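Table S4 entry, Glutamine--fructose-6-phosphate aminotransferase [isomerizing].
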Amino acid sequence: MCGIVGYIGPRQAQDVLISGLSKLEYRGYDSAGIAVHDGAQIEVKKKAGKLENLSTLLEGQPMGGSLGIGHTRWATHGLPNDTNAHPHATEDGRIVIIHNGIIENYLPLKEGLMSRGHEFKSETDSEVLAHLIEEAYAGNLEEAVRAALSQVRGAYGIVVTHVDHREIVAARTVSPLVMGVGEGEMFLASDVPALLAYTRNMVFLHDGDMVVLNDDGFRVMDLAGNPQERPVEHIEWDAEAAEKGGYDTYMLKEIYEQPQALTNTLIGRLHDETGEVNLDIDLDPGSFKRISIIACGTAYYAGLVGEYLIEQLARIPVEVDVASEYRYRDPLVSENTLAIVVSQSGETIDTLEALREAKKFGAKTLGVINAKGSSMTRELDDTLYIHAGPEIGVASTKAYTSMVSAFLMLALWLGRARGTLSEEQGAELLKAARELPRLVEEALAPERVARIKEVAEKYAMARDYLFLGRGVNSPTAYEGALKLKEISYIHAEAYAAGEMKHGPIALIDEKLPVAVIATESRLLEKTISNVQEVRARAGKVILFLSDGDTENARHGDDVIYVPRAHEMVSPVVNAVAMQLLAYFTATALGKDVDKPRNLAKSVTVE
């Protein structure tokens, strides 16, 4: 998961590295460190904890030099302490490396190195790389890195520098790396936002790429040394788009960015006059007999909404899989299967490996992805970009609602192409989709936000929460529970409301808040019956109702109204209320919503 930054050019490297790492701390904040080459030696400074600890250390001991590498860590091997923090150096300090990923065979490699006299300082798998490079080094750093990597098995984004060379050598397999191309300077990072303050010209490295950066520019080759052509792409985001923009937190900013994000997802793709959707997808919609949606976490819940939408509108059997389990259950896949992978970053390792498993058995593949140039986009048959823009908060908000909107468009596209959705029905749903940015903006009206804040603070001291929903909004309940768990650390569970009486009803007492999504739908009456079951056992009902539903308001201890929306698009609108409930609960408890404990934004280790 970790964040990587590298720089070579005329600037003070320390400033570039700290600036870049501050944009990547969402990838890990167990420790941080930098190494700076001043022309004579490489100095390393690192500190456990958040980046501010390293910044405080550097205030009194600045590092001079215009070449450097930096790292912010999410711990896998070894405790999050100063010693295990990156960068790692060889005993003589001449070779310094940073690494993102996991070296699966590090133990036998380490044992072999120790038997040959190498001494290790840390408990990390990453330090093995420094020693392998040292052992292979004979004057050419590029060759030494290549020789070292030929011995390792696993995932890596690795960046290396040597005291005798004014260059940075980097390579990647699975773990992402992107280069920034400046005027007489070169940058390297795990993600685009780290570099936007300096350049918007980026080169996305592919799996198996190695790159050498120096004052003259860069060279890309594969791990066998064969030159590779990688285009320079201009990124439209500006640096401010990755900043808080006046909000207290990234998460709150991104909640409020959802009307624009949804506009970006939908724009240019909806054609009212024909009731059709143009997704610029070359796949043949008539060739699929079944669809597998594969994802993790929040993206998985977006996929569950997609299951409802696709089956109802396109009449194709759909199953949704947790990516981490997919390839281990020996899935039934054929050339008539469409595998849809869902990921904000396009780098989620479990999802990436599931994608490869599906391809191995002949499935056609489609990605619902936010990040352009990511690993998944280079292996997919086709990609449906959600265009949500950079999402920095660890708990996904605008990416989730954009993913759900993308699934709505995909279901419409499939339904119209397969003849299961009439032009009239398509036009009705297109109109509902077009309303989404306005409806979400309305959901963020000050009086609505204030009401949710009031309810959140009322129940902030609860030890447990239950979320209930039905039909297309049962995944919204799952997502609401996940958001609350992620950022408030309150235990929360979610169920399809009809399942409550099959076990979870035993949990209900007068101390348990039960959040129920009861917006307008064909199952509303049944949902209200489930609410009655909760109230009969003294549970505290937080009822989410569509505007104007005064009749059902009497069934809730607390009522939160959301804008009335077509049932098929309501999961997007209702998700905003779930996000705000979780957000204000967490802030009432004094939690760091942007950097929840134990979590990282992009999960690139299995």
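The longest strand covers residues 95-103.
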